[in-house]
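Render this sequence as a predicted structure.
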Amino acid sequence: MPGPFLLRDRECRAMQLAGMPPGLFPNIEYEEYTLRLEPGDTVLFCTDGLTDARNMYEKECELHGVREVCERHRGAHAVELLGHGFAAIRDFTFGCRHWDDMTAAVFQFANAE
């Protein structure tokens, strides 16, 4: 599974986290990871169904495809960012069958205005 994407200021960073995806095996222990968020930060979590999505040429979207969408729509509201992300995947895979789930969640730390 891809790690979450942190959108902060002018950067979009794919965070690499080690370990098994949650929910696959009972009684597995996970390493705890703490991320300090700042006002204006956005974190995107997604399944590998987005990064592994393939187009008609069997090319995968990969991390850079998801990162590109995040960078292009960095200032978008959470719901808009999800919409842009799924639209980009739909356009990328146009006419191809999806073979995996595509799930994403966005969390935003609102600016105090």
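Summary. Residues 78-92 form the longest helix (15 residues). DSSP finds three helices and four strands in the chain.
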